[in-house]
Amino acid sequence: MHGVRADDQQRGARTGRADGPRRRATIHDVAHLAGVSRQTVSRAVNDKGEIDPATKERVLEVARRLDYRPSRFARGLVRKGAVTTGLVIPDLMNPFFPEVAAGVLEAAEQRGWQVVVWDSRTDPGRERDALDMLSHQADAVVGYFRNDDEVLARHLGGVPLVVLERDPRRTRFGAVGIDVAAGTERGVAHLVAAGHRRIGLLDGEPEIPGRRRAAFAYEVRRHGLPVDDSWIVLCPEHSVTGGEAGMAQLLATRPGVTAVVGFNDLIAVGAMRAARRAGRRVPDDLAVLGFDGLSLGELVEPALTTLHIDKRRLGRLAVEQVARLRAGEDPLTGPEAWVVPELVVRASA
Questions:
Q1: How far, in Å, CA of 197 to CA of 174, rounded?
Q2: How far apart are the first and last CA of the chain?
Q3: Are residues 153 and 54 part of one domain?
């Protein structure tokens, strides 16, 4: 390569965008910089015979400098030549996430890619374990992560990463965001139009202030309605049981509440159960609004009004971002990298 020094080649193999993650070094990078064939690189890193010791040492030194880590999948555990994407899901028991996974699987299958799924159980430590493993086994990673960018980068090994439900403009990686603010605006406007003036939130984000919490407070204030911490209850357990407990607490502190927004549909269903147990009719005495668009929302009685997120589209967009990163392109950050929740009006609000 005319006019390019070895150290420039090394930097080129290891970096992506100036402010982005490293591109993972490939066997081609090692072979080119060491001046050998790919077969020789394979023999050296896999400690095979039939290779001159000095050549082997030169190849291994280049591999160390490039932080080259051969994929176990590339060594024959899966279909030869296939692109493997790791998918990190926080809770496979929550029906929201299998729908996202279905979108990833569908889009990957259309490209002839394979997907390896890891359940992080919403545990930051397991997220890091997932990246440590997948950086050796996959060509890219898609998933939900609580760890911040700096931590993710330390465990990623240069593999392209797409983070789900994170603002694409505020991460060094690729991302697909959910426009929580736009969805909340539609949901609160619907409740206000129905005459509600005392609206609560059953939140599920421990972060302060949390995206839904901040969007909810902004919209309620914008309509001139009361809102403070007493109108917002945190539900650490994102489940029907968590929603029941949260609704009971909200009714105890704010008995005059006439409408409630759930962090997700499961929490909203739990809120309806707690309201009925407290003698409140839904929606006559208490309107309930979910935030997910799960199929089960149509099965409960009354059917759940919700802010529907196109979960399969979320997964498909993530795969599109992966394809861009693998092609050496910048990830999308504009409207095409976002999913906007749509209000679906049923009987609960």
A1: 40
A2: 66
A3: no
Length of the chain equals 349
Tell me the two tokens of residue 339: 């999913």
- Pair of tokens at residue 347: 């009987």
Q: What is the mean pLDDT of the chain?
A: 88
Contact 164, 176 (CB under 8 A): yes
125, 44: one domain: no
Render pLDDT for 311-339 as a digit per residue (tens, 0 to 9). Answer: 999 999 999 999 999 888 999 999 999 99
283-320 as b/e: b if 16+ CB within 10 A: beebbbbbbbbbeebeebeeebbbbbbbbbebbbbbbb
Q: In the predicted model, is pLDDT for residue 16 greater than 90? A: no
User: Which residue from 210, 208, 194 is spatially nearest to 289, judged by alpha carbons?
Assistant: 194
Nearest CA-CA partner of 104 in 114, 93, 92: 114
User: Would you state the structure tokens that stand for residue 230, as one six-digit string?
Assistant: 């007493």
Pick 229 or 6 by higher pLDDT.
229
In Å, how far are 3, 18, 116, 146, 332 from 108, measured between CA atoms? Answer: 39, 28, 11, 24, 18
CATH number of the domain to which 143 belongs: 3.40.50.2300
How far apart, in whole angstroms, are the C-alpha atoms of residue 328 and residue 232?
44
Whether the Cβ atoms of residue 174 and residue 160 lie closer than 8 Å to each other: yes
Do 300 and 333 share a domain, yes or no? no
Please list, in sequence order, all residues whose beta carbon lies within 8 angstroms of the beta carbon of residue 64, skipping any fewer than 6 positions away.
none
219 and 232 Cβ atoms separated by less than 8 Å: no
In a domain, 188, yes or no: yes
